[in-house]
């Protein structure tokens, strides 16, 4: 199964790296193009794929086309292409209806991955695929599930999902950097501090599969203890409100507000 990437930016690269390290259901070959940046050649070399000269050539050779261009380039790119067998769009804030109108003769699937796909621990939201080739949907899920957990959502929920799972790795990284910096200032080596933080984040992620956020906070924060003091300081500084504000800002940007 050949997967072609139109666009070789950060998310395309993350998916390609994930498939390069996947132990099952990975593409037999990955093809790449870019708009002249040279990223396609570099990425192809990194993951053992192949850079091709043009998007039309890529489409003709690919079973699945990953559309990873800027949303503003959608119409221009679509007009230049022969009809792909299947288009898997990574374009943010671009409804399925719009995508289908640009690729009327293709099976179109709208996706939103997060950066965890790079290490085969990603989350991918898929707009509920209705009335399209179910064989292609099944094949797509098999590919995607080798690098992520796939969640089907109504198309109208995809922007909210993007703000929650697509943007959040960057927010978690802000938390990790703040704690790494504090730990380093307190005397820990930087490598030790970030390792402690990352392992704690991983453990908390696993706990969240079994406990609610409130239960975890209660279990860690003994009355009168250091965690309770820390939580009080976070509340006073508007910690939770800051993350809610980040979500609202992301949604507003996607909706053009």
SSE layout and pairings?
Elements: E1 2-6, H1 10-21, E2 29-33, H2 39-47, E3 50-51, H3 55-61, E4 64-67, H4 74-79, E5 86-89, H5 96-102, E6 107-113, E7 122-127, H6 134-144, E8 148-153, H7 158-166, H8 168-185, H9 190-207, H10 213-220, H11 226-236, H12 239-254
Parallel strand pairs: 1-2, 1-4, 2-3, 4-5, 5-6, 7-8
Antiparallel strand pairs: 6-7
Description:
- The protein has two domains: 2-153, 3-Layer(aba) Sandwich (Rossmann fold), CATH 3.40.50; 168-254, ProC C-terminal domain-like fold (Orthogonal Bundle), CATH 1.10.3730.10.
- Helix 7 crosses helix 12 and helix 8 (168-185) packs across helix 9.
- The protein has 257 residues and is of the alpha/beta class.
- The chain contains twelve helices and eight strands.
- 51% of the residues lie in helices and 15% in strands.
- The radius of gyration is 21 Å and the shape is elongated.
- An eight-stranded mixed sheet has the order 3-2-1-4-5-6-7-8, with helices on both faces.
- The two termini are 40 Å apart.
- 29% of the residues are buried.
- It has helices at 10-21, 39-47, 55-61, 74-79, 96-102, 134-144, 158-166, 168-185, 190-207, 213-220, 226-236, 239-254; strands at residues 2-6, 29-33, 50-51, 64-67, 86-89, 107-113, 122-127, 148-153.
- The longest helix has 18 residues, at 168-185.
- Strand 5, helix 5 (96-102) and strand 6 form a beta-alpha-beta unit.
């Amino acid at each position: 199964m050949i997967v072609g990437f139109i666009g070789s930016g950060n998310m395309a690269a993350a998916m390609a790296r994930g498939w390069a390290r996947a132990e099952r259901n990975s593409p037999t070959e990955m093809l790449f193009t870019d708009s002249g940046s040279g990223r396609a050649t570099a990425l192809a070399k990194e993951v053992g794929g192949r850079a091709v000269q043009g998007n039309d050539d890529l489409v003709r050779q690919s079973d699945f086309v990953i559309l990873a261009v800027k949303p503003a380039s959608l119409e221009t790119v679509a007009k230049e292409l022969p009809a792909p067998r299947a288009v898997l769009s990574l374009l943010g804030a671009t409804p399925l209806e719009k995508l289908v109108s640009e690729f009327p003769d293709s099976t179109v699937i709208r996706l939103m991955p997060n950066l965890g796909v790079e290490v085969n621990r990603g989350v991918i939201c898929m707009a509920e695929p209705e009335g399209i080739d179910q064989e292609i949907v099944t094949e797509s899920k098999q590919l995607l599930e080798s690098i992520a957990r796939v969640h089907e959502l109504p198309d109208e929920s995809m922007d909210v999902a993007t703000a929650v799972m697509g943007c959040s790795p960057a927010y978690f990284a802000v938390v990790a950097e703040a704690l790494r910096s504090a730990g380093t200032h307190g005397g820990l080596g930087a490598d030790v501090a970030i390792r402690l933080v990352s392992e704690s984040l991983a453990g908390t992620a696993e706990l969240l599969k079994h406990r609610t956020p409130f239960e975890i906070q209660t279990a860690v924060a003994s009355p009168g203890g250091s965690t309770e003091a820390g939580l009080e300081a976070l509340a006073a500084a508007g910690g939770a409100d800051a993350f809610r504000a980040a979500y609202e800002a992301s949604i507003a940007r996607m909706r053009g507000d």
